[in-house]
Each structure stands twice: as C-alpha cells, then as structure tokens.
TrEMBL record:
Belongs to the short-chain dehydrogenases/reductases (SDR) family. This is Oxidoreductase, short-chain dehydrogenase/reductase family protein. It comes from the Bacteria. It comes from Marinobacter algicola DG893. PANTHER family: 3-OXOACYL-(ACYL-CARRIER-PROTEIN) REDUCTASE, NADPH-DEPENDENT REDUCTASE BACG. Pfam families: adh_short_C2 (PF13561).
Amino acid sequence: MELGITGRWALVCAASKGLGKGCAEALVMEGANVVINARSSKALEETAAHLRHLNPAASIYTVAGDIALVETRQAALEACPQIDILITNAGGPPPGDFRDWSRQDWLDAIDVNMVTPIELIKATVDAMASRGFGRVINITSAAVKAPIDILGLSNGARSGLTGFIAGLSRQPQLVGRNVTINNLLPGSFDTDRLRSTQKGIAQSSGRSYEDVRDSFRRSVPSQRFGTAEEFGAFCAFLCSAQAGYMTGQNILLDGGSYPGAY
Ligand code: NAP
C-alpha cells in the first residue's frame, strides 16, 4: 500500500533508539523527511546516518537535547520547514513506591510525559489544520489501560495526557480539517529500556538475566517481544493519507497481553 506521505515533514521525538527510531525508520522508508531528536548527540547522529542510508532522497535533520526543555522544543520545531507529522515520545519516569516520591518527582513526570507532548501539539496542530493534513501520534504505554503498581508516575502522567487528547482530538476544527491525534500504547517491546528493566530485576532478585527475560517473554500471549520495526510500521500507517478517519484512539500493541474484550 502506498501511504501517501512522500515529501511530508515529520518531527520524531526521542528517536535515536527504540520505538522512536522504529517510527523514524518507517516514515523515512515511506518517503517522509524527518527531524529526529534525542539527548545524546552521538547515538542521534548514528541514527541519522542510518536513516540517510535507508532513503538517500529523504532529508534528515537532527536536534540534540532534552525534549522536556523549552529551548530543545523550539529548536526542533524550527528545524522542520513545516510539520505534517508529529510523533511525541520521551523516556518514561522511574519505577518506585509512591511513598518515596516527592512533589518534584511528580512535577518532573508530568512535565516530560504530559506537558511536553501538549506543548508540541499546541505549536503544530493549527498550522496542520490550515494546510488540511496532520497526524499526531503520542507514544504512551500499555500501562495507561492496565496500570502497573510500581510505574505510578508513568500511570498518572500518561493518563493525564490521554484524557486531554480524548477531548482535543475530537475538535471539529482539527479532525474536520484532516488532523488526527492518536495514542500508541506499547506493551513489551525489545528495546534498551525493556532490557535494562530486566537487568535491574535480575540484579535485585539474584536471578540470571536470561531467566528473567524468559519469564517476561512467556508472560506475553504471543510468546515473544514486539520489535521496533513492527511498532514503526504501525505508526507509519496511522500517519498515512488513508488513516484520516481515525482519531482519539488508544491503540494497544502488546502481543495480546491486555486481557479485556474492550
Ligand atoms: P529506549 O529504547 O530507551 O529509547 C529511548 C529513546 O528516547 C532514546 O533515543 C533516548 O535517547 C531518547 N530520550 C529519552 N528521554 C529523552 C528526552 N527527555 N528527550 C529527548 N530524547 C529522549 O526506550 P523505548 O523502549 O523506545 O521507550 C520509548 C517510550 O515508550 C518510553 O516513554 C517508554 O516508557 C515507553 N514504553 C516502552 C515500552 C517497551 O516495551 N519498550 C513499553 C511501554 C512504554 P537519549 O537517552 O540520548 O535521550
């Protein structure tokens, strides 16, 4: 299927590794130009070189910096001649016990995982609407639908974003002008983040990394972890010309882990 996004401009946040990188790869292979962001410039430039190799016809720009900072967001927005596609993403907050979290811990989580995507959306959607095309995808988490106790900061901040998007995405001045906003909810994807979580559990429990990884894998009905390539391909379809009638949805990609019918 031709997705109809050749020549579109995409800003993909937190994209030097993992799910963000998977989204950037899929968009570039579909002919989009991208601005990619991450804090460490070394991995970011390596990913940019890889993307240029995937599609030499695409323009690939990089903006290094923490996307939660105003100046990074400004630089990322200015690096794109226009933004047709916005993929919001950042690292998730640390796990823990809510009894140990300070007010500042909550504010930091809300800043990165709720306010940052909202600020990026605010800066881009009205111009998308005026041009008659826009796609916003927020990378959130399966924990929005099935909260995990130790990920309370993530559950709280991402639920706030989810509630906000449910209202905004249905504004006729946006979806009536072909601007859609959807959330992608990853379950267990085989990225650095998942591997470091598994290593942490192995260290604290005295089990081997392989044993922890295998028990994670067997807990997923599909009996495997998702890949960043699968995630990116799904994201690219949501950004396609064909996906214009879907907005305000929370789409689980979790190998069947969520047990509910709805
Ligand atoms: P990952 O493999 O660790 O990659 C994270 C990427 O984001 C890296 O490129 C990292 O580069 C960049 N990044 C992190 N914080 C950033 C910031 N503040 N500003 C700019 N760039 C930033 O993680 P992932 O697995 O792809 O996860 C992506 C998101 O999905 C996270 O929010 C995670 O919580 C969520 N998620 C993942 C899974 C999963 O199974 N993988 C499941 C549920 C939810 P730098 O470190 O250089 O900045």
